[in-house]
Design brief:
Elements (H helix, E strand, L loop, with lengths): L4 E4 L5 H11 L5 E4 L1 H6 L2 H10 L3 E8 L3 H13 L4 E5 L2 H11 L5 E5 L7 H6 L6 H15 L3 E3 L5 H8 L4 E4 L18 H7 L3 E4 L1 H4 L4 H18 L1
Parallel strand pairs: 1-2, 1-8, 2-3, 3-4, 4-5, 5-6, 6-7, 7-8
Helix pairs in contact: 4-5, 5-7, 7-8, 9-11
EC number: 4.1.1.23
Pathway: Pyrimidine metabolism; UMP biosynthesis via de novo pathway; UMP from orotate: step 2/2
Subunit structure: Homodimer.
């Protein structure tokens, strides 16, 4: 169960990131390193150190570029021993990422639609489809590209599962424990409901790292996740 909870190290200081990891101890063994930590806290080196310590690392870099650049970038991340990496779920990008990850254990995830976006945001970005329609399209393309999984809102997890089948990972950010504030998330869901909907991994940031007792917050979320599995 602990391996399905991914804590987002959304901090700008290497010292603060290490403090969070220390406070969480054995309660958490999987960490996400996104832009803030990657660029502000020497996140690549931090990630490699976490991997050496037996932790799992998810580099949330959302790669998107010409095919060769994506392929070589993914290959470099794969060499680190990272567990997961995100790319944008455009067909060419996903196919290039699979070439870069070939021969490694890296699970490449396609980012469908950001959980901070709703139908109005998708329309403003120029897409003719609504949020659900765009996620469905990206899920089909991810399945055809053969990547390891998708990042999607828990609200679309059940739909995505019907499209991609039982084996692909579905990683859901925007997770908020029952009773917590949504912040900038527009398509959030509680941990238990997200797993019941078909998610395989849950990404949680502020509800854990900003808590007075991060370990207690993580254990509370794990308890909610257990409820979701029993319902599922």
């Amino acid at each position: 169960m602990a391996g399905q909870l991914i804590v987002a190290l959304d901090v700008s200081s290497r010292g603060r990131a290490e403090e969070i990891v220390s406070l969480l101890g054995d309660a958490v063994d999987f960490y996400k390193i996104g832009y803030q930590c990657f660029y502000g806290a020497d996140g690549f080196a931090l990630g490699k150190d976490l991997l050496k310590a037996g932790k799992k690392v998810f580099f949330d870099l959302k790669l998107l570029d010409i095919d060769n650049t994506v392929e070589q970038g993914v290959a470099a991340i794969a060499e680190s021993g990272a567990t997961m990496l995100t790319v944008h779920a455009y067909p060419q990008c996903m196919r290039a990422s699979m070439r870069g990850a070939a021969g490694s254990d890296l699970c490449v995830l396609g980012v469908s639609v950001l959980t901070s976006m709703d139908d109005a945001d998708v329309a403003e970005a120029g897409f003719a489809r609504d949020t659900a329609g765009l996620v469905a399209l990206r899920a089909q393309q991810a399945r055809d590209a053969g990547i390891g999984g998708l990042v999607a809102s828990a609200h679309e997890a059940e739909m995505v599962r019907t499209i991609v089948g039982p084996k692909m990972a579905i990683v859901t950010p925007g997770i908020r424990p029952a009773g917590s504030a949504l912040g900038d998330q527009k398509r959030a869901m509680t941990p238990g409901d997200a797993l019941a909907a078909g998610a395989t991994h849950l990404v949680v940031g502020r509800p854990v790292i900003a808590a007075a007792d991060p370990a207690a917050a993580a254990r509370s979320i794990l308890a909610e996740m257990n409820t979701g599995l029993r319902v599922a």
